[in-house]
Design a protein that fits this description.
- The protein is of the alpha+beta class.
- It folds into 3 domains: 83 residues, no CATH class; 141 residues, no CATH class; 208 residues, no CATH class.
- Helices cover 45% and strands 14% of the residues.
- It contains 19 helices and 12 strands.
- The chain has a 4-stranded mixed beta sheet. Strands 1-2 form a two-stranded antiparallel sheet.
- A hairpin with a 4-residue loop joins β10 and β11.
- This is AbiJ-NTD3 domain-containing protein.
- It holds the Pfam family AbiJ_NTD3.
- InterPro entries: AbiJ-NTD3.
Length: 463
């Protein structure tokens, strides 16, 4: 597979729904394929055979697109749609919430506090669980009474007869204890949302009750934005809890910055030619730092009259800082924007030559106490304070004497710096310079890498 993922399970669950397309006429089939992002096929054989041929031509890299269009069009049964969601969501490697923690959490929750509004709560449940619809009079007559339905049981035992069920009983009947981690996480987020709880104090009380238990699984519900004036909470890893939003981002460096520190306010000032470095000093949005945010800052601070000029001049300024000695960095930067095209506006901005540490002394003067890494090749700031570092490694990273001999000390230093970054909440992805040296190869690599990266880190969560 192009991006290295095994999507055999996703292919199977999507094929079960796609098979229903054979209910279209031959004349309509190709249009139905197009709606789902599947290729057209000639009118040969049965309709079922045409559906199979078209779906077989969908590459694994495009399966998530087809799956999401299946979900968007509401095709398939609730069970089939939820199965597709589970497989798609699992690709983002959701944090594990063990069954024991789920049960302990459920036993601690006040069901009445979770369900102040019946229609909103039931609508939320139906987004995540198979409740069963109201059955027909004929089925009711067959059973001699209203037929079995989880929806009816919830309405009876939770709303009409409060106290019949506990929160644990409800979650047991929903299947929440055995559900996938991603579904359970989204369920918790939905329970505390303003769509269900139309009171901020009620939201925060329920968040506190949930966090008391899930923090032992190294996750918590954290306020990440607002919706209609109410807080929005997202389940995030507490392993990133030390990551505060950047106050100043020094990037696009042409030289080592000359910095003056205001000790009282902890603000920095670039001394000398301020264009040698760019300093993004605005609050980083909850959705991370996107090109749209960066371009707006550039346009405002440079008094540029229109967006088109701001876009072009910003791109040129960022490209200018890339080392002439590293075609791989230049090709990665160009391929990133070529592959994303106009989508780049609402995806993370690729910040080149970013200063992680700054020391007024030289490494030689500092000696063993010198910081291992002072500058990153590229940085991406994603939703939920996730930080992604992209590094392009030439031979100078692990050799000496101009590449003639291996240098194990250099390599060990690089690995130690990576460990330090990861412990501080950064994710580091390294590329060999050789795989980026050709511009076309770099583009093909980014076409595989970027979709997998953004899906893995939920980079479009804030859209």
């Amino acid at each position: 597979m192009a991006d290295g993922r095994d999507r055999s399970i996703l292919r199977q669950v999507v094929s079960d729904v796609v098979a229903r397309l054979s209910g279209n006429s031959h004349a309509r089939l190709n249009a139905a394929f197009a709606e789902l992002g599947m290729p057209a096929v000639p009118e040969e054989g049965t309709k079922g055979e045409r559906v199979k041929r078209s779906f077989a031509q969908v590459p694994d890299t495009d399966l998530p697109l087809v799956a999401n269009r299946v979900l968007a069009t509401g095709q398939g049964s609730p069970q089939q749609r939820f199965r597709i969601e589970d497989v798609l969501w699992a690709e983002s490697s959701p944090p594990e919430i063990p069954i024991r923690i789920r049960r302990e959490l459920a036993r601690s929750l006040d069901l009445a506090a979770m369900t102040p509004n019946q229609p909103r709560f039931m609508a939320m449940l139906s987004r995540f669980w198979v409740l069963g619809e109201e059955l027909s009079p004929l089925i009711d007559a067959f059973f001699g009474s209203p037929g079995p339905s989880l929806r009816r049981d919830i309405e009876k035992h939770v709303f009409r007869n409060p106290g019949d069920w506990t929160a644990e009983t409800l979650l047991e009947n929903l299947g929440a204890f055995e559900a996938g981690d991603a579904r359970f996480a989204r369920f918790l987020e939905a329970m505390v949302s303003a769509d269900v709880l139309l009171d901020e104090s009620a939201q925060r009380l329920l968040v506190d009750a949930i966090n008391e238990h899930v923090r032992s699984a190294a996750v918590e519900l954290r306020e990440t934005g607002t919706e209609g004036g109410y807080p929005r909470f997202t389940l995030v890893s507490t392993r990133l809890a030390g990551n505060r939003k950047p106050k100043n981002i020094i990037f696009a460096s042409l030289t080592k910055p000359d910095i003056r520190l205001n000790a009282m306010d902890n603000d920095i000032e670039i001394v000398g030619d301020t264009d040698n470095q760019l300093v993004y000093d605005r609050p980083t949005p909850d959705h991370g730092l996107r090109w749209r945010d960066l371009q707006a800052w550039w346009q405002d601070t440079r008094n540029i009259p229109n967006e088109a000029e701001a876009k072009t001049s910003l791109y040129k300024r960022l490209h200018r800082c890339l080392p002439d000695t590293s075609p791989g960095q230049q090709n990665l930067f160009g391929a990133y924007h070529h592959v994303l095209g106009d989508r780049a506006y609402d995806l993370p901005a690729l910040l080149p030559e970013v200063w992680l540490h700054w020391d007024h002394q030289t490494v030689r003067a500092r000696g063993p106490q010198a910081l291992l890494r002072s500058r990153m090749d590229f940085l991406l700031l994603l939703p939920h304070q996730q930080r992604i570092v992209l590094e392009v490694d030439g031979s100078q990273h692990y050799t000496r004497d101009r590449g003639q001999r291996p240098d194990t000390a250099k390599y060990a230093e690089m690995m130690a710096a990576d460990r330090d970054l990861k412990l501080r909440g950064y994710e580091v992805f390294r590329f060999g310079h050789d795989e980026l040296e050709d511009a076309r190869d770099a583009q093909v690599l980014m076409e595989r890498f970027l979709p997998a990266l953004f899906q893995r880190f939920d980079a479009e969560a804030g859209s």
